[in-house]
Amino acid sequence: MSIVHKIQTCVVASLQSLYGQNFSEKDFQINQTKPEFEGDYTVVIFSLVKPLKKSPDVLGQELGTVLTTQHGDLFTGFNFIKGFLNLSIADSYWLDLLQHHHNDICFGKQAMNGQKVMIEYSSPNTNKPLHLGHLRNNFLGWSVAEILKANGYEVFKSCIVNDRGIHICKSMIAWQLFANGATPESTGIKGDHLVGDYYVKFNDEYKKQVATLVANGMSEADAEKNAPIMLQTQQMLLDWESGNPEVMTLWKTMNGWVYEGFDVTYKAIGSDFDKTYYESNTYLLGKDIVQQGLSKNVFQKKPDGSVWIDLTPDGLDEKLVLRKDGTSVYITQDIGLAQLKHDEFGIDQSIYVIGDEQNYHMKVLKLIAQKLGLPYADHIYHLSYGMVELPTGKMKSREGTVVDADDLVQEMIDTARRHTEELGKVKDFNPEELNTLFHTIGLGAMKFYLLRVDPKKKMIFNPEESIDFHGFTGPFIQYTHARIKSILRKEPLTSFDNSTELFLPLEKQVLYTLEQFPAAIADAAKELNPSVLANYLFHLAKQFNSFYTEHSIGNAETSNKKQLRLQMANMTAHVLKSGMQMLGIAVPERM
């Protein structure tokens, strides 16, 4: 039970004892006491004045007296200032926290709660490599999964690969026309990059052909429909759907190149999945569910044979669910895949990590599932996130202006190398240790920068700013951890008599923050928001550095005080390591 929860329980019991009225923790606020006032935690009592018909001064005095009298083991004193009851917490509480948790690597984590959650993220297309937008998606999905695990959920990480459709055929046609049999092996180009190059080549050629047709008198709209390369691509899609052996062989070959490339990138960024679905296997799903919906009058068939659902009464539009030729559309496939996930894993919640441009689509998916009465409908949750851009602006994959994930990872490693060498503190590292360190710092900087912002917000990723060792960054936290580990290597932990020690204000600030770690993990899970945890970890690192700047550990006033501070340092290191791991970030033992 957290200190805030303990205070809430004591206040509720004291109000009942004093006035015979029942209150709950929601009836008043508890905050950390502001530095300019004496005390540790403050009960804001304005909301209690009216129902109790007491003046603030009388209420504050009576409540403070009962709290310190009946719960003297927790509260050592109080003062009341203009509606704010400031309570001083016994040092024994903080000593007990240190004694039980200073070496607890599982501090803050909860027991299994029996709930199963699936988190779908990444969702790449097999016509191009992963890019900056995919990085935010992957880091967000992976981190939410780890945060939920820490809160006792059984979590399944899944990915749906968009491996079919017109966009895939564009790369295939361009490869046939321009590659002269090029392969990743013959060119030395990573497979997903090679296929992505031909997606760009398709667009370049397509624009040329449209311009030629327009110059010859055709309207732009007709030119876009009748450009030879587009007609070839549309025919290839029909051939794929009919199972043409030559097209299927090329499709499997080029997708194989892309998967090999994806695997390299996923390994480099620390992303993984328990289950991967492929659109080529799922695009026919959902048709049976549509037929069931027709029999329930949830869907309506139009004269041309197409099937629709009217969502205008719900403030949305009419939505096509089956084309007139009986083929599925994306929403149909998604309904079927949602059913498949539920049947395969028995999940209690299905979380989709998808950009905010799909907000409408996800709203429609959940609403249709609800109207069909599907068992998983109410458990669909869209974790929507904003677009991420570079300082140079937006990116477009078809025009080749997207920043590849691989290139960005390498840029971050190179930037970490430059900054670290400028500090000049790694001269005793061997080359292998240096490479590991630069990767750890570079990737950690990128992940933290992308995760420290609320997912709902659009953001600009600035690589140079993300790696500042003194800013609101991953490297600042990594450096704090390494600094603590250096202290602990020089000063071993031993037992000590803690009964006589009193805490200084900066020591208490560190302890307040450490004690909040379980609540930070719980809040991050409740909001599905890793930035809650990222902000907490940065605050803890700042608190520890402020304390350490003012108070020596190795030359502490007494041996007891030295051991007490070592326990604080050890607990801080454990919390930083545990919290950063939930963000997918490693913390070095030395930097």
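Second entry:
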Amino acid sequence: MGAECRERISLLRERMQREGIDAVLIPTADYHNSEYVADYFKTREFFTGFTGSAGTCIVTKEEACLWTDGRYFVQAERELEGSGVRLMRMMEPGVPTTQEYLEEVLPEGAVLAFDGRCVTDAAGSDLEEKLSGREILFRADLDPAEGIWTDRPAMPVSKAEILDVCYAGVSAVQKLGALREEMKKSGCAAYVSSRLDDNMWLLNIRGADVECNPVALSHLYLDQERFVLFIQEDAVTEALSEYIASCGGEILPYGDFAAFLGTVTPAGKVMYDPDGLGYSAALALCERLRTVRRHSPVQGMKAVKNETELQNLRGCYLRDSAALCSFIYWLKNTADLSAETEYTAAMKLDGLRAEIEDFRGLSFPTISAYGPNAAMMHYEAGPEDAAKLQPEAMLLVDSGGQYLSGTTDVTRTMALGPVSDEMRLHYTLTAVGNLQLMDAVFLHGCTGRAIDILSREPLWQVGIDYKCGTGHGIGYYLNVHENPPNIRWRYAPGMREDVIEPGMIVSDEPGVYLQDRYGIRIETILECVEKETNGDGTFLAFRPLTLVPLDRELLMPEKLTPRTREVLNAYHERVYREVAPLLPPEEAAWLREQTLPL
């Protein structure tokens, strides 16, 4: 693969030479800033060979570099071998950001090219600011793969479906009304969005155009009288056309979006989210219309689940947890480990989920990582290269499903046999962090940065950190990673940092990742609830949605704090009480053993 990437970069440089381009920026993105991109949009992977879901490549006349974060350092180092692409480990000492690198390498008057549909307005504007005064010319009309990627896959398209209000809880007309009220408050006559999960949630529709994300490629224009949904013609059914019309909207072809922005004449300012609209689209708006750039109000609306969504989610997580408990029972009691691999274990779990009645697919490709492979946070085993399981060490499984009743995400790390005392210590410290956050009580007004320390502190005490956030928001039959909720300790410029509200769903997933040795992660999904209100304010807490036991073989009871021991015992009792009725008798008996008080 390395040689192929070298050749592709060489062809790109030939084009750069012909067109007077000094550098090309290639993000991991589609036209909607999706976290996971369809094969058609995997241009960065095409040129570098790096298959991780996050990374940015810059190609200059002299070198090619790839930036990615700590989740992918081990994977990227392996996959870039032989490609000639230099790995830039983001946020490590001495490693410049992409903007700092461009400031350093681009001469005065240089030409920087990129596909302005795949770079957000926020990122493009930030580049403009960082490179201001250097007379850098931006070319936002370059698709780097054009003419080089000759066997490029087709643009993904699927039939869009209408999500019944018994799942959505609130009608699209009501949601559109709430958004129009937000527009009025901001003094705006119109709203433009390219965020797929926002558009899907707002209109109560779903699709299958992005792997594991039930979304349809689409753009949206909304004013006080009407809205326009731009969607691929092959995605449109007669039912969808009638439904959109009944909500006061119309459908136009997906490819007409850019031309529409060049002609639309709203009766006032246009609101858009710079993180949710492409740089080229924003330029088209700002050249001729008055605009208001602000965080998408839709994100805050959908992050707080309504009561119907919450009720559905609670049942969804119960059924999903039962499937994972069945998987762990199989793994520890009936599986012939010598005949299993990481991949076959993942297929077993995926099959158990598929038996749940309203299952619609995975929420992300199942991560089944044995031994050293678990040190790579987003490792994915294939059928040919999966490691064989052995009756020793640990297996980390991070998995989730998409259901009409919700989106799930859960990680458990299991002992397959004898483990070292160090493994047990690190697992227990991870468990302490997980339980401390699960047990958190905090005042309304806190953001995730106020409570991240609860998960991280037990590991910091022994000089260990995990190079990712502790928690993220989760959608309702939408994206498994949903903004704005997040739990992390570090502030990054431009990062959205919203208050945690009752009804938000967040993950709680501390871990230990020791390169070439092992990885541990415990992920429990939490519902934020109101605990009490008194003269000191409104106190919030978390209630676990995930109901899957922690591994007793990996716990050192003496390393638990008195409080976390209480929390774990209470959690395990609830796991048994609620999950056991969904299991066959032999699995229920096993679950009773796993959830006895420590």
